[in-house]
Amino acid sequence: MTLAIDVHELTRRFGSFTAVDAITFDVNEGEVFGFLGANGAGKTTAIKMLIGLLAPSAGSATVAGCDVVRESDAVRRRIGYMSQRFSLYEDLTVRENITLYGGIYGLSNEAIRDRGDGMLAALHLEKMAKERVAALPLGWKQKLAFSVALLHEPAVVFLDEPTGGVDPITRRQFWEMIYAAAARGTTVFVTTHYLDEAEYCDRVSIMVDGRIAAMGTPQQLKEEHDVATLDELFVRLARPSAAAHG
Amino acid sequence: MVKELRHILRDRQTLMVLLLLPLAMVVLFGFAIRSDVHDIRVVFVDPNPDYATIALRARFAGNGRFEIVGTVPTIATVEPMFRRGDADIALVFEPGFAGHLAEGTPARLLLVSDASDPNTGTTIQAYAGAVIASYQAEVGGPGRAVQIIPVTRMRYNPTLASANLFVPGLIALVLTLVTALMTAISLSREKERGTLEVLLVSPLQPWQIIVGKVLPYLLLAFANVVTALVAAWGIFGVPFRGSLVFLLAASTVYAMVGLALGVMIASVTNSQRAAMIGAMAGTMLPNLLLSGMIFPIASLPGWMHPLTLVVPARWFIVISRGVMLKGAGIAQLWLPLVVLFGMLLVLMLAAIRSFKPRLA
After folding, report:
1. Among A94, A190, B69, B201, which one is most buried in terms of CB atoms within 10 A?
2. B195 to A76: CB separation less than 8 angstroms, yes or no
3. Strand B40-45, strand B66-72: pairing
4. Using one digit for the tens of pLDDT, what is the confidence trace for A127-143?
């Protein structure tokens, strides 16, 4: 199985502060990988390096077979991204957003139309195609944003806290979409604060203070550390002193 | 109230602007609002130099207010100088000047001022008149009737209409405001919303993003130029003596400079509000004070003159006044145009650079 993401000693310094400290990990093709960590642990910085928004201070990483520093343009064509603060333009219609992103990723008009139709059918959003995105409820927006991120059929898709503020039913549906994408061979790299969602992932990693403190399948990690839920593990790793007194 | 104070103190960027802006305004306005004029560039037209003309010319040379930019034999050379903005006043001696003085017949002196700015036009005439009068008083003596008759002409603006002064500058101001504000707001809004991040992760190159955001506003700005010109001509009666095509082309370049400026402001600010304030302070203030739009550059203190060189509006006003009032064309006004192009290039490169991934 080829590696979708291969990270080796990736480091990022800001002056004297080391945000990401020589992390090493890899993600297999078609995996759903949960990238966890407390706020300030270095998660966002790490992701930014993987998607080409930030250059590493040291170390290397390849995403979808391309080096993030030397072949950043190639990386960008092969990945999808769903930002924490939304990716869709609120005052454009659903159709217009689809056409925009399709065009940006170089899809032909035909492909845009066909894939767009398919997407809207799968989401049951055909009636809302001409509505502005602002009119959609939050859950629908999120599902739409995810679908749009997958429009150009990227090898790897990066999701930054995609289910923030959404009701549990929609979260379930969202994760079903994630599984469907993974089944098609897309690698899903997702960060989340909802540790029950972390249990849905094939493997997870937990970042603490710039380093990876734990990595493995949810089952493995729970057995290794003798905890019932990943939540406990997370708290234990993120606040060792608090857990010791816990 | 305490909470409000905290808000104010913690919003560093806005605070800086709110404290420094009034200070800057007081300083700049204070210096700019002066009605005296320095560094008046005078060109002499002296077909038959004689002792009197040379003496009078020496008077001007010795007077600190005047800067002699040329002595030419015919008046034909003067017109292009005016159009390029190289001279403020021309003194034309009639042939046989000294002879007339000696005989006691009127010796005529034609004073032609560039009155595109009617305020300085009259002031310059007054200063020149004073120098001439003092020479006249010296040369004359008891019983001798020495007559130097200055004949004044206000070039380009015979009626000294102040609209002719303001309106070309007003066009510059409006263009800057609209263009810089538009792009600054648009870009900072994307930054705030987070959609800019997504664009940066996409295969789009930074220059594509910038051009894509800037071009539609260019069309808008162009529409603004046309309406402003129509208003200037139709409502204020500002003459239109030069090439319309050249003015439109120059306006487009100037509008692009404004758009690029807006992009730069958006890239260094963190919020829409800061971008708006930045755009307004960074464009309106220099434009009002340092561009020669209201307060002539000649009136500004010497140390401010170099500052005016980096204000794009200053160069555009030379072009707009030149074309509208003096009928000048590209032959005379190529320099300001080149400067504007240069500014555009610098700003665009800087804007594109600012979008590249931050390196360690």
Report:
1. A94
2. no
3. parallel
4. 888 888 888 888 888 88
